[in-house]
Amino acid sequence: MLYRYGTDSNGKLVKKAVVYTKDEHLIPLEKIDTDALQIINRLRDAGYIAYIVGGAVRDLIVGNNPKDFDIVTDATPSKIKKIFRNSRIIGRRFRLVHVVFGEKIFEVSTFRSNAEGSVGNEFGTIEQDVLRRDFSLNALYYDPITEQVIDYVGGMKDIKKHVLRPVISLETIFIEDPVRMLRAIKYSATTHAKMSFALRHKIRTSANLLGQISPSRLTEELLKIINSGHSFDIISEAIDTDLFMYLQPSAAAMIFDNKALEEKYMNNLKKLDALTITEPGARLGKKLYFLIYDFVSTLTDWEKETSNKYSSVELYSKTWTECRNFVLPMNPQRRELEYAIKSVLNSFGVNIKASGKNTSASKNSKNTSQKSETKKKQNQ
Question: Which residues participate in catalysis according to the annotation?
């Protein structure tokens, strides 16, 4: 075990970080994406510092294959852009760089200061950057050149102990960014990291802060949950911490009022997770099927409806409107929600072709989606 030293306010030499060697962290270099390695090497060749950071390091330590490799550096976005022609600068307040290799996108960010809090927009040092990261298990920096993990906040020990510990004070962590509550329950469910009583209590008492988050951002987080393969565990945590009523208010009301429906809904989440694992490339519509199935079953007596005068198109049109409202504030792609609704109706004996052609309901859904996009842009 090595140490990284610095000086305190009085100029005294102090230990700043623990440095773990490859014999201690056991990260196999072959698990690092070759394009991520290329980015780091090119930044180093240009005279800059660069590390893999966050969830990728956590996953590598516990033996999982990271989905994304985020990179942090002391180079500013404009300097990163000059090094990589295959890149673009994004973000309004704090700018990031996306480096593109084919279908892969790597997020490269500059060390960020915590002088304005954990959501400040000023560039800083690695010592400042680490203190604005949400939880200790996401605050590790991996250097694939020296094969060392740099740990300023005890994140390595927390991963080994399966402990979810905030880096930022509980008094400000969720006020500054309420979405961190969703990340907390996701990490707890997917890494089996235990939350302290204080952390869980803080999430429950801060749950209403999610009401401030835009539908587009909540949609992004919900899609991550749906695609995680752990939706049952994450939603169970969301229900326990009172977050679910802000994520999916209609579904929350439905299952809170009817225990039998709650059991069916949660069982369908297990089926969703099974699909995600066995068919990782499954389209979103196939997954949304499991979220809306129980709701659609409560809308009417489908056996009677299929024998009545209503046409399949009429039934679909009415069901589409109800389901669109049911999944709010989530705003999935229109065609994927349509696919899910048609699939559910087919299972109830309503014969609807899952084609790409626009029915009247499709046109209505398109108008609703456009209005939602317009409203979203106005709020930005």
Answer: 68, 70, 134
